[in-house]
Design the sequence.
């Protein structure tokens, strides 16, 4: 009897958890002891993978984008995930999806990314030219828009449809794939491999997110309070964010992440509105629409630009990297999107993710990037010169400090936005990790809080360990991306089976309605 009770208490897939954590621990130790060797090995493997899978990734991303748009406007768009009303308002729904997907990276790159395209543009454009400046923001729109969100749509809809409509018990990629495989002999083994890969990718990519947010956080503290950036301060920033997203995770989505996401989104909107009101509004607005039009005009060419003649490395460094990095988030986002999409139609999921999240990102990049671009053109801040020295956060706070309140109030607002963005992303990561490693759900349908707490600790301790060892986050992040590339085939499989399900279930419903009408007429 006691043995049975003990067995019931164990609600974690130990094999998946132990193997994935052992792999992460082993690589972190390797990074610490031989940082250069680790970085060289991963870089070599990553470069090889981008060469081999570069074109397949481009095709996959473009086709997935087309399928996501098709889902929204096809007859399948009206199908509801589940049989209840939506649990969250449209604003909260989009805000949670956006913050889960973007973390602090979007805020950082919204100020800086255009400058890299200005200094080293694609499409054979001359660096530092007027044309390079004009297309730079459009390329950012392309990389952060539909191409990034489309895989989240397809994976989220596939998982949501499997759980809410096909009644699959667990909300994780492996369970959905195993159900899709039917009687395939080795589906349990493949499911375990998928789970291990998912855990490794999420911990590797999202664990680094917390560490990479530190420079922006400490920069804000130095700007506002004059606190010098030291190692103890960096640790405090990591622990502070870790505590916030852990508490948020334990409170649950409704009381935790939803509140943080709503607050952070509103604060970010006010921050951008302030820049627009006191900054060069005419230039920002004109540049935004010009960049958006250029992206639409060149979308297909950017989607398949391989740079075969000049071979500048632009495609591998940017487009292929973004497409591969997106895959590290795909499992996490698929699970999270499915979680918060209960009661919504497939059309709503697709449009809110594609247009809602992408539109928000375009506005973020359009205002922040446009303002930084104007600072470069007017000579207010030497943006490209500062970026070339590797001081991205200094450039950002230099640009922001040129505004009224830019020395104290705005950096404080940025710090709060960063904390909110990162906490939301890591909260969704802990939820997805808990779903992936659980054996069964509670009667309420929720995953164990103890399991979520465990993954919150892991997501906090991994970056702390790397920081204590003074190692580089790049190797772990690149390895996570490398491991995620084969996940492309998992998503393709899920897409194929999803459309098969939709067709079958729609035909069954049509047949059932027809028979009902015939019987009614006979009676």
Sequence:
């Amino acid at each position: 009897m006691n043995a049975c009770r003990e067995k019931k208490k164990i609600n974690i897939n130990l094999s998946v958890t132990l193997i994935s954590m052992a792999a992460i621990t082993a690589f972190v130790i390797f990074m610490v002891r031989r940082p250069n060797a680790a970085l060289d090995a991963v870089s070599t493997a990553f470069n090889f993978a981008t060469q081999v899978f570069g074109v397949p990734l481009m095709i996959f991303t473009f086709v997935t984008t087309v399928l996501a748009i098709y889902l929204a406007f096809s007859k399948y768009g009206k199908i509801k995930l589940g049989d209840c009303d939506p649990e969250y308002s449209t604003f909260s729904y989009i805000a949670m999806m956006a913050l889960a997907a973007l973390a602090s990276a979007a805020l950082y790159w919204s100020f800086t990314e255009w400058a890299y395209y200005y200094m080293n543009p694609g499409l054979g454009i001359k660096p530092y030219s007027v044309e390079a400046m004009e297309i730079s923001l459009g390329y950012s729109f392309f990389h952060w828009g539909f191409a990034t969100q489309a895989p989240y749509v397809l994976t989220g809809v596939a998982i949501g449809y499997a759980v809410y409509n096909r009644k699959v018990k667990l909300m994780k990629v492996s369970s959905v794939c195993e159900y899709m495989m039917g009687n395939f002999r080795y589906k349990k083994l493949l499911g375990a491999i998928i789970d291990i890969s998912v855990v490794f990718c999420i911990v590797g990519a999202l664990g680094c997110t917390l560490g990479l947010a530190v420079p922006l956080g400490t920069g804000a503290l130095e700007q506002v309070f004059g606190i010098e950036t030291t190692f103890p301060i960096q640790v405090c920033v990591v622990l502070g964010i870790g505590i916030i997203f852990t508490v948020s995770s334990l409170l649950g989505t409704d009381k935790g992440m939803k509140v943080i996401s709503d607050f952070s989104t509103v604060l970010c909107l006010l921050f951008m509105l302030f820049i627009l009101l006191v900054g060069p509004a005419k230039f920002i607005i004109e540049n935004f629409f010009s960049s958006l039009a250029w992206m639409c005009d060149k979308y297909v060419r950017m989607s398949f630009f391989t740079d075969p003649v000049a071979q500048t490395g632009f495609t591998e460094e940017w487009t292929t990297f973004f497409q591969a990095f997106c895959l590290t988030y795909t499992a996490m986002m698929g699970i999270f999107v499915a979680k918060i999409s209960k009661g919504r139609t497939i059309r709503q999921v697709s449009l809110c993710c594609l247009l809602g999240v992408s539109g928000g990102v375009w506005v973020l990049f359009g205002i922040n990037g446009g303002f930084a671009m104007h600072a470069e053109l007017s000579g207010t801040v030497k943006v490209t010169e500062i970026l070339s020295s590797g001081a991205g956060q200094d450039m950002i706070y230099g640009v922001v400090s040129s505004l009224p309140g830019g020395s104290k109030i705005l950096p404080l607002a940025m710090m709060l936005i960063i904390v909110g963005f990162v906490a939301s992303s890591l909260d969704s990561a802990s939820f997805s990790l808990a779903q992936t490693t659980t054996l069964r759900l509670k009667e309420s349908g929720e995953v164990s809080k103890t399991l979520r707490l465990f993954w919150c600790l892991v997501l906090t301790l991994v970056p702390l360990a790397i920081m204590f060892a003074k190692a580089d986050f790049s190797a772990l992040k690149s390895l996570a991306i490398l491991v995620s590339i084969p996940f492309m085939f998992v998503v393709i499989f899920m897409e194929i089976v999803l459309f098969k399900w939709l067709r079958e279930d729609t035909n069954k419903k049509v047949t059932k309605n027809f028979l009902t009408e015939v019987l009614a007429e006979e009676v």
